[in-house]
Amino acid sequence: NGIAFHARIEPVSLELTADPELIEQVLINLLLNAMQAVHEQRNARIDLNAQLDERGRVVIQVKDNGPGIIAEAREKIFIPFFTTKKGGSGIGLSLSRQIMRLHRGTIGVSSEPNVATVFTLRF
Fold first, then answer.
1. End-to-end Cα distance, the chain
2. Which terminus of the chain is less hemmed in, N or C, by CB atoms within 10 Å?
3. Domain ranges of the chain
């Protein structure tokens, strides 16, 4: 039961001024969460998209077609030590938010149950 992974960067020359190790940590957190979300899904898919928004800011999105995140949990997932995962620490997303704040950026989430969850990083 593999996971289809698609990455799209437009334009291919897209650049971002940021601490590469910290942003890598954010992306690893988001991709691991996505992999865990879709691991039992048929036709599992994860998309990573990077582009410029209408204001010229870099936007990176990680999207999965897992079961989604219920509204009550969406309000709390960036709070340290909050987790919905068995054995989860509740550190990954709160750390990711702190890293994005260090870069004067934001992290947000939208989720439609049983359709898609999208985490959006804006720089």
1. 34
2. N
3. 4-122
Look at the block and give the residue holding tokens 């985490």.
Answer: 119
Tokens of 61: 């999105």
Q: What is the pLDDT of residues 80-122, one digit of tens each?
A: 998 877 878 889 999 999 999 999 999 999 999 999 999 999 9
Q: How far apart are CA 73 and CA 59, in angstroms?
A: 24
pLDDT of 1 reads: 62
Say whether pLDDT at 4 is over 90. yes
Cα–Cα distance between 21 and 118 in angstroms, integer? 22
3-state class percentages of the chain: helix first, strand second, coil last, to nearest 5 = 30, 30, 45
- pTM beyond 0.85: the answer is yes
CATH number of 4-122: 3.30.565.10
Q: Identify the H or E element spanning 25.
A: helix 20-38
CB 109 within 8 Å of CB 77: yes
Q: How far apart, in Å, are the Cα atoms of 56 and each of 16, 51, 108, 110, 116?
A: 11, 9, 18, 22, 26
Query: Average pLDDT over the chain, rounded to whole?
Result: 95
